[in-house]
Amino acid sequence: MSEDFPKPIVTVDVVVLTLKDGVLQLLLAQRAKDAAIAPGVWTLPGGFVHVDGDDSLEDTVRRVFRTKTGGEVAYMEQLCTFGNARRDPRGWSLSVAYLALLPEHKVTGLDEQRTRWATVRPCPDLPFDHRAIVAQALARVRGKAAYSSLPAFLLPDTFTLPQLMAVYEAVLDQQLDQSTFRRKVAEQGMIVKARGAHLHTGAGRPAALYKLSRPALQDFGRVLLGTRDA
């Protein structure tokens, strides 16, 4: 392989979203105080690809996330690639961006000295092109929420129907009609009752708990959810 051409800087950046108190939030990691670029600044968790140790980009994401936050990635998917000669003062660089969803009950093990959560609306000031990456991630989540089970990955393994609708409303940033939502979810066979499981709230009848019918992302093949009955 020819070595005549300079190589670009190759990194990954991860947009990690969770739902806290009904609000969609974004995980930020603080850069090292002695970093050559943007020292001590809060950014998306990210880092260089290690060609001698990372077998895949997904391995890079897991390693970077673990190193920067002390935690583990749950659901993730590749978002897109950002690259040009101006995004990093160190030289021509490209970043493969990933989207990860982390249920609030799994937000454990994170290094509180190096990480913090911030609301995504409005997006905080971020260096490089990280605000553009966040915008792309939100567009992806909102778009896929209308025709897939993606928002459910922000919930515990079992959940009530009101909890499921609330997470869709938070991601879509709009109110949904309850009866239409329940009917469309039922038509797709997206969830099943968790046998014998109920949520006791202390008032009235305990609510039935449900779980996803399949652990993998379910694509409904058409837009189902929104403010209009489509």
Automatic annotation (TrEMBL):
GO molecular function, one term: hydrolase activity
Keywords noted in UniProt: Hydrolase
Domain of life: Bacteria
Biological source species: Dyella mobilis
Tagged with keyword Hydrolase: yes
Ranges in a coiled coil: none
Presence of the UniProt keyword Membrane in the record: no
Family annotation (Pfam families): NUDIX, WHD_NrtR
Domain Nudix hydrolase intervals: 7-140
Name of the featured protein: NUDIX hydrolase
